[in-house]
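Encode chain A's predicted structure.
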Amino acid sequence: SQTITGNFAKVIHGLNANQLTDQVIQRSKRMILDTLGVGLLGTSTEVCHKVARYSKIYSSDLSSTIWGHLDFRLPPLYAAFVNGVAVHSMDFDDTWHPATHPSGAVLPAVIALSEAFPQKKKISGLDLLLAFNVGVEVQGRLLHFSREARNIPKRY
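Encoded structure for chain A:
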């Protein structure tokens, strides 16, 4: 018999770009543009400067862009971290219920990983949109089933 986790993984693994509707693509593009905007604005915050300085101690053969810094690259994990902090630093990033900020957690990771692919294996824009939507879907479903997430409105 299939476990809930196994079934969830099977569904996620089976998704492909052909399943993205025009409405989902347009919504995703708006979410991405908004997240890039608040992320670029967030690069000027003190907390973003601190995590960027801290992350400079890490190096790797693979590197990804730190938004707003043409001369500064980090391994994908740390680039996603710094860019994610930039997105959320002023709390202007998108939100939904249960309480979460979907794009700020997903987009920096998807972009950092996509940049780390070798030139001959670069992913398409449609593949990036699929990865973004899968990330948002996973986050939303995990939060939906989280007892902690359901209690957030009661605690505040």
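DSSP finds seven helices and two strands in the chain.
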